[in-house]
């Protein structure tokens, strides 16, 4: 069975994007230029064969003209409002996200990468489908924005599996989701 890993960048105060669903703060030169954590993130793609994301996360790239943000991975976008996919490679799922993800986990192959966002992650966490949470904790404070997971129905306990501290202040935290 495949694992579903929520691999996400976050600020120290727990936000994955601004209230306007932008992530420019994470793109500062001091955080990404010649950064080992970016190289590690890109290398992690070798462990995935599928990426899952909510509509708002997908639309960040779409606004820049990127219709297939992960061409090496099978891509699923989950949305109740999009009517059709702008790219034939990107599969649009409009109903039963939990059932679709459950079926994807049962397939053979590499792990599933949950790219975001906070509402979609909360749905999958609540359904007990997320196996690991990998947080790239950035030395930033936004004060408000899109939380890592919104409106969880219950507390989700995590077990720390590993940490890695990078020279630029980013800390990679890897957790297993318990129960």
From TrEMBL:
Identification of the protein by name: Dihydrofolate reductase family protein
Domain Bacterial bifunctional deaminase-reductase C-terminal: residue ranges: 4-172
């Amino acid at each position: 069975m495949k694992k579903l890993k929520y691999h996400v960048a976050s600020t120290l105060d727990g936000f994955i994007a601004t209230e306007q669903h932008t992530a420019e703060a994470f793109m500062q030169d001091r955080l990404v230029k010649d950064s080992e954590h970016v190289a590690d993130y890109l290398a992690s793609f070798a462990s995935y064969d599928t990426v899952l994301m909510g509509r708002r996360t997908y639309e960040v790239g779409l606004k820049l003209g990127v219709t297939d943000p992960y061409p090496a991975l099978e891509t699923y976008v989950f949305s109740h409002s999009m009517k059709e996919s702008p790219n034939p490679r990107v599969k649009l799922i409009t109903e039963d996200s939990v059932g679709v993800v459950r079926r994807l986990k049962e397939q053979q192959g590499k792990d599933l990468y949950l790219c975001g966002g906070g509402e979609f992650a909360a749905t999958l966490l609540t359904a007990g489908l997320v196996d690991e949470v990998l947080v790239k904790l950035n030395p930033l404070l936004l004060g408000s924005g899109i939380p890592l997971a919104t409106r969880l129905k219950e507390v989700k306990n995590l077990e720390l599996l590993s940490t890695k501290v990078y020279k630029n202040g980013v800390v990679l935290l890897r957790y297993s989701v318990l129960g």
